[in-house]
Amino acid sequence: MIRRISSAGLYEQKAGYCRAVVAQGMVHVSGTTAQGEEIPTDVVAQCQSALETIGNALAQAGSGFDQVIRVTDMLPDRRDFPLCWPLLAQTFGDNPPAATMIECGLIDPRYRIEIEVTALVSR
What is the CATH number of the domain that holds 68? Predict the structure, then answer.
């Protein structure tokens, strides 16, 4: 059985995807940027916004940050990444996932970070 979770994000309908897909005991959360009408210019505020959206998707899937096994962080400027480390370390706490950081272009030049995760469904 496959379950799809939508967050009604700006690009979900435009690009034909959903925020997360739950299948075979795992939840795959799509790349997530800052959400809302006003996109913060600060990379840490954008990281926080993305993590809040991801946290909501994980909760709807019956999971949480403690069940994340893989995270990919994508940034247009890799020099911004260390600014996000304290927030990411706090979010994952004693359960750090395997991680990859990629420097790349994002869909909108206002975005400074995009995060995707894969987690186990445990609840």
Answer: 3.30.1330.40
Element (H, E) at 51: helix 43-61
H-helix or E-strand spanning residue 23: strand 20-23
Q: How far apart, in whole angstroms, are the C-alpha atoms of residue 28 and residue 93?
A: 20
- For 67-80, the pLDDT digits (tens) are 999 999 999 999 99
Q: How many domains does the chain have?
A: 1
Note down the domain range covering 61. Answer: 2-120
- 84-93 CB burial, b ≥16 within 10 A, e <16: beeebeebbe
Say if pTM beats, i.e. exceeds, 0.90. yes
Angle at 109 between CA 35 and CA 13, to 5 degrees: 50
Which of 65, 47, 69 lies closest to 57 in space, CA to CA? Answer: 65
> To which H or E segment does residue 12 belong?
helix 10-15
**Rounded distance between C-alpha atoms, residue 113 and residue 103, angstroms:** 10
